[in-house]
Amino acid sequence: MEPLIRMRGVGKRFGQFDALKNVDLDVAAGEVVVLLGPSGSGKSTLIRCINHLEEYDSGDVFVGGIRVERGRNLLKVRQQTGMVFQAFNLFPNLSVLDNVALGPVRVKKLSWDAAREKARTLLGRVGIAEQAEKFPTQLSGGQQQRVGIARALAMEPRILLFDEPTSALDPEMVGEVLDVIKGLAHSGVTMVLVTHEMGFARQVADRIVFMEAGEIKEISQPDVFFTATTNERARAFLDAVL
Ligand code: ADP
Ligand code: MG
């Protein structure tokens, strides 16, 4: 079967610096892929090339068979992808409900009534239905991130991209957000996740992709990666974080 995400020979430079070098990666529909690697290894850059938040300068990225590039196809790619950011990036002047409803109103041309009804359902799904009328700053970090996830889901994406979704949270709130993500994994939606939560990565991933210095150094099953990697760099990374 054609992979949902297909990256071939992808390169990205910032000035003289190679942030991504010759990256090849296929992600199957429904698969959960976790990107691990030291800070600066290119994880965010890779994930951002999938929805063209970052423009790659060599190789090809395809999402659902559509090449990810500037132009009229980009909307089709963006309609298939939702992204959850480390810093939540909620709209402070909109209620929680309207943060979730806005995308479908703008992009899918739903009425506000229809979009809000759907948003309520999604807020229930992430466990914060009772927060709907509040504003983002009135919520805890964990609750705000759950709004971020509901907002991504509102677009009914085939792909969810998570870039360190719990890194900005106080430790006691990490679990509630990881639980929501675990609940979504293997529900049919395809996920590419960057996280520093190793236990979670091992539990949720179908495959672990280990990056260093802009390159994919290893792709393996989580149990193999965490117990038996033969890659020296991956071993050193695990020794440092576990
Ligand atoms: P990671 O997410 O693994 O920490 P990134 O993908 O954010 O790594 O960054 C990879 C490298 O590219 C880093 O060295 C970073 O400093 C550099 N980089 C990322 N974005 C930019 C940018 N907009 N301009 C210049 N350098 C950047
Ligand atoms: Mg990053």
Specify the number of helices.
9
Please give the share of residues in helix: 25-40%
By DSSP, the count of extended strands is 10
* Structural class estimated from helices and strands: alpha/beta
Shape: globular
Pfam families: ABC_tran (PF00005)
Organism: Aureimonas glaciei
GO molecular function, one term: ATP hydrolysis activity
Protein name: Arginine ABC transporter ATP-binding protein
Would you mind describing this structure in some detail?
One of its GO terms (molecular function) is ATP binding. This is Arginine ABC transporter ATP-binding protein. Belongs to the ABC transporter superfamily. InterPro entries: AAA+_ATPase, ABC_ATPase_HisP-typ, ABC_transporter-like_ATP-bd, ABC_transporter-like_CS, MetN_ABC_transporter-like, P-loop_NTPase. Pfam families: ABC_tran. The protein has 242 residues and is of the alpha/beta class. It contains nine helices and ten strands. The chain has helices at residues 43-50, 74-80, 96-107, 112-125, 141-154, 171-184, 198-204, 222-228, 232-241; strands at residues 5-14, 17-27, 32-36, 58-63, 66-67, 81-84, 159-163, 190-194, 207-212, 215-220. Strands 6-7-8-3-9-10 form a six-stranded mixed β-sheet, with helices on both faces. Strands 2-1-4-5 form a four-stranded antiparallel β-sheet, covered by helices on one side. Helix 4 (112-125) packs across helix 5 and helix 5 (141-154) packs parallel to helix 6. It is globular. The termini are far apart. The relative contact order is 0.17. The mean pLDDT is 96.
